[in-house]
Amino acid sequence: MEKFYVQGPTCLNGEIFISGAKNSALPILFATLLTTKPIELQNVPSLSDIDTAIQILRKLGATIKRSSSIYIDTSTVNNYKALFSTVTTMRASIWALGPLLIRFGCGEILLPGGCAIGKRPIDLHIKGLRKLGAEINLEKNSIKAQIDNQLKGAYISMESISVGATITIMITATLVSGITIIKNAAKEPEIVDTANFLNTIGAKIKGAGSNVITIEGVTNLSGGVYRILPDRIETGTFLIAAAVSGGHVTCFNTLPNLLNVILSKLYEAGADIKIGVDWISLKMQGRPKALNIDTAPYPGFPTDMQSQFSLLNVVAEGKSIVKETIFENRFMYIPELIRMGANITIRSNYAIFQGVNSLQGTKVKATDLRSAVSLVLAGCVAKGTTIIDDIYHIDRGYENIENKLTSIGAVIKRIDSK
């Protein structure tokens, strides 16, 4: 099992080139199952989750080559059953079901997995597919879908906002006869990116990024070239790295307009921020100011940045409250920060922070993707050595994390403890 050794405290300064967004790349990779024409995807990050998605597609029969881009030919896909153990390791595997159903008239996947950050039910995915006319049966460990009659467009009002279910319905409806309307749809930029990809290869999707998405079904999709948008969460993470360490970091290859709420909070914390067309620079002098935060669906404060801003509150001046409204287990990392000297009290779905002057390095354990990177940043600003176990979580969502951190002054080493 690999772990990180981080030596602190360090002040993080330098330039970072942001990778492509994992949360766009994954649905787009599975959406390539909808066409039999060649696809080239650019700016795809090198992550373990991406490797898992490629492995699943290959086992379904796709031909995939990877260099600076990913080249995908799904004309060779001949398997409608994604019954591989890799499916259970990643929540995004659910996005294979709709395209398989469209392509073969039936599909079966093992129940997908992912980070243990709370209940992430698949019921909205299933209800959406059933609204389109699919017959869905839940077996002990798998989901079976088939078409008895032709799938037809439908009016689907989401009971609650769900990024995953919005994507499932949208990509499936692309090749369904008639008009599909998704009301109370999620608005995340990664949904817009997925819709833009599908439109590039011939889909007719309108309204992505709003709470109503309209899909006019087409009979087939073509091939093409598409570039994945930059990762807004990685951008925010490296801006936090500068903020908590009293450093100065510039993120290139990013889209500032996707980080409005994050930048607003960082301004509130006292950061000096400069913005260009595709770059953001943050400089922090002295300790940041404590921030009250409530997570919310986009364009609200992203739950994927909650743990990073919680770390900021740990080292900030003053008292603050962070309320988590999306996932009930997203505070699992807080006991690890407390072991490093943080002053935090958890009350149901909110945490109360009293800023401390410094943290002390110790041995901690990552519990999910976003908290894992927060523990690494905590190690960068703590006194002494911090050892982070279970760092495979980080490799799921951050490309070359130790190399990028080293380039801005972190002292970090990956160790295989086997």
Based on DSSP secondary structure assignment, what is the total number of beta strands? 24
| Computed Rg | 22 Å
Portion in beta strands: 25-35%
Taking pLDDT < 50 over at least 5 consecutive residues as the criterion, the unreliable ranges are 114-120
Any idea of the CATH topology of the largest domain? Answer: UDP-n-acetylglucosamine1-carboxyvinyl-transferase, Chain
Assigned CATH class of the largest domain: Alpha Beta
Widest sheet: strand order? 22-23-1-24
CATH architecture of the largest domain: Alpha-beta prism
Average pLDDT, all residues = 94
| Contiguous helical run count | 13
* Sheet of most strands: 4 strands, mixed
Summarize the structure.
The protein is of the alpha/beta class.
Description:
- The chain is 30% helix and 25% strand.
- The chain is elongated, with a radius of gyration of 22 Å.
- Helix 3 packs parallel to helix 5, helix 5 runs parallel beside helix 6 and helix 7 runs parallel beside helix 11.
- The chain starts with a strand and ends with a strand.
- The chain has 2 domains: 205 residues, UDP-n-acetylglucosamine1-carboxyvinyl-transferase, Chain (Alpha-beta prism); 206 residues, Enolpyruvate transferase domain (UDP-n-acetylglucosamine1-carboxyvinyl-transferase, Chain, Alpha-beta prism), CATH 3.65.10.
- The chain is built from 13 helices and 24 strands.
- The chain has 418 residues and is α/β, with parallel strands linked by helices.
- A 4-stranded mixed beta sheet has the order 22-23-1-24. A 4-stranded mixed beta sheet has the order 2-15-17-16, covered by helices on one side.
